[in-house]
Amino acid sequence: MIVRTTEEITGTDRDVAAAHWRSKRIILADDGVGFSFHETTIEPNTVSEFHYRHHVEAVWVVEGTGMLTDLETGQDYPLRPGSMYLLNGHERHRVTTDTTMRMLCVFNPPVTGQEVHDENGAYPAAVAN
């Protein structure tokens, strides 16, 4: 059994920040459960583009409002608490925030926790442990 709090993760190597977002990586690849689980916060009035070419990501919005844009189709989806989106086709996407957004995210395959987005907003392919 694994029990962790976001409080104990804060300020550790599981607490990763970039220009407009912060991700607390609660479950990672080295936990050996086949997925990773993150709490991600994106600052208000920002635009972030992502493309997870090697991962499927499910996102559950628990706080804040914004817009998800599928960059493959141009379709926009409003985001608010209770919204979920699944990037099961490795879609390039944009998240535009109106307010601070807090989301719970699951990645498969799991991330190691030290990935950084490349110039295309992607994480590298998973490395077997």
TrEMBL record:
EC code: 4.2.1.108
Range of residues in the leader sequence: none
PANTHER family: L-ECTOINE SYNTHASE, PTHR39289
Keywords of this entry: Lyase
Molecular function terms, GO-annotated: ectoine synthase activity
Class of the enzyme per the UniProt entry, highest EC level: lyase
Function: Catalyzes the circularization of gamma-N-acetyl-alpha,gamma-diaminobutyric acid (ADABA) to ectoine (1,4,5,6-tetrahydro-2-methyl-4-pyrimidine carboxylic acid), which is an excellent osmoprotectant.
Pfam families in alphabetical order: Ectoine_synth
Chain's gene name: ectC
GO biological processes: ectoine biosynthetic process
Highest taxon of source: Bacteria
Native organism: Mycolicibacterium duvalii
UniProt name for this protein: L-ectoine synthase
Family: Belongs to the ectoine synthase family.
Catalytic activity, as annotated: (2S)-4-acetamido-2-aminobutanoate = L-ectoine + H2O
Residues in coiled coil: none
Pathway: Amine and polyamine biosynthesis; ectoine biosynthesis; L-ectoine from L-aspartate 4-semialdehyde: step 3/3
